[in-house]
């Protein structure tokens, strides 16, 4: 089954409208630090334009960029799962326009509306799985034997 590419495509129009009403437009300049690994995850974003780099702390070194997200992608999933702490850090690569959501309001909406909640949880789970697969592929390219990503 192909993954739904945008969160709003994962739900019926009436539910999409309910979720959209909770978001607000933000405009973020280049090099804006959005969150830090290990801190409280209290919001998420749908990127309208621009790019955001996800990074991870590396002891004794500068944070390593693990992925760059762009237009239409959701930034943040840690807000959905206890203990609601960020697993990565995030910073804008250039100017970014996004729709920002308060996590507690969206979690409450997901609890009140099982159809919307199922769509959000499923979309986030598929997104996490896709990103983990991408990370695995990148790690194999970096550290695996030559041709290791050519498997099934």
UniProtKB/TrEMBL annotation:
SUPFAM superfamilies: cAMP-binding domain-like (SSF51206). CDD domains: CAP_ED. Residues 7-76 form the Cyclic nucleotide-binding domain. This is Cyclic nucleotide-binding domain-containing protein. It comes from Streptomyces yunnanensis. The lineage of its organism: Bacteria, Bacillati, Actinomycetota, Actinomycetes, Kitasatosporales.
């Amino acid at each position: 089954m192909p993954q739904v590419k945008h969160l709003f495509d994962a739900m019926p129009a009436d539910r999409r409208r309910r979720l959209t009403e909770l978001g607000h437009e933000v405009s973020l300049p280049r090099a804006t630090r959005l969150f830090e690994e290990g801190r409280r995850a209290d919001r998420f974003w749908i990127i309208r334009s621009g790019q955001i780099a996800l990074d991870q702390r590396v002891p004794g070194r500068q944070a390593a960029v693990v992925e760059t997200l762009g237009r239409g992608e959701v930034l943040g999933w840690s807000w959905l799962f206890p203990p609601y702490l960020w697993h990565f850090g995030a910073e804008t690569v250039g100017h970014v326009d996004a729709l920002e959501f308060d996590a507690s309001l969206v979690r409450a909406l997901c609890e009140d509306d099982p159809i919307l909640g199922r769509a959000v949880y499923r979309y986030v789970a598929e997104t996490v799985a896709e990103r983990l697969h991408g990370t695995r592929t990148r790690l194999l390219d970096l550290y695996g034997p030559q041709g290791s990503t050519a498997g099934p």
